[in-house]
Amino acid sequence: MIVIEGGIPAFRECSIHLEKLPIPSCHTKNLLERQIGFDLERYDRMRIITTEMRRFIQEGRDVELCLHPEKILKNEHLKKMLQWV
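and the corresponding structure tokens:
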């Protein structure tokens, strides 16, 4: 599990037995607030992360992406989204 805050990895834990995913603290910010500070370095990090998520899904691993307390994306939905990235 990797928690990303503001485009920067903030926490990493190696455990396959998580009861629930942590909710990102920035989920309450609006789009403009989240875009401030999003520079080329953060873009590149996020590009690498999306590439790795796509690879994990292709390998048959379980991937979950929590963007909001009520929005957790899993393999099939991520697979459809990441084909355009």
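(Above: one complete record from the training split.) The radius of gyration is 13 Å.
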